[in-house]
């Protein structure tokens, strides 16, 4: 990648930090994913723990009695067709996602391959909180456009 290509990639990527204060991840994530789907944009969810990823997979099918989110795992034969792809692999963007969701302290070396990156972290988990702070400083040094949202008691988000 040439310098100008890298500059262009950096300028198109924005990172949005979502600070969970009142609920757990599974209560907040589906709403963000629903908005992603409404925008006709594919998403990749990146985690580092296989058991947590499998648990999230199950919960996305059952988070509401009357709704579910179309998604799948990146090791499935039709993975490229899923609008929401769950992955342990930072190397590939199988479903051509424009949005990347980094959960539970996960980081990526490929943020510039995405239009928007969501860093969702829980203030009750010191490792996630520490990782989010580290990411903020690192992305700031890279000149990435960043926004910070804090969860309100009624489970909406306020930009700070």
Describe what this molecule looks like in 3D:
- The structure is a single chain.
- By secondary structure, this protein is α/β, with parallel strands linked by helices.
- It has helices spanning 3-12, 25-38, 50-62, 126-142; strands at 14-20, 43-46, 72-73, 84-87, 99-103, 116-122, 145-151, 157-159.
- It has an eight-stranded mixed sheet, sandwiched between helices.
- A hairpin with a 5-residue loop joins strand 7 (145-151) and strand 8 (157-159).
- The longest helix has 17 residues, at 126-142.
- The protein starts with a helix and ends with a strand.
- Mean pLDDT is 90; it is low at 1-10.
- Runs in which pLDDT lies below 50 for 5 or more consecutive residues are 1-10
Percent helix, as a range, is: 25-40%
Helices and strands, in N-to-C order? HEHEHEEEEHEE
**Structural class assignment:** alpha/beta
Largest sheet: 8 strands, mixed
Rg calc: 15 Å
User: Given the structure, what is the number of helices?
Assistant: 4
Mean pLDDT: 90
Strand line-up of the largest beta sheet? 3-4-2-5-6-1-7-8
Gross morphology is globular
In total, the number of strands is 8
| Distance linking N and C termini | 34 Å
What share of the residues does DSSP label as strand, in percent? 15-25%
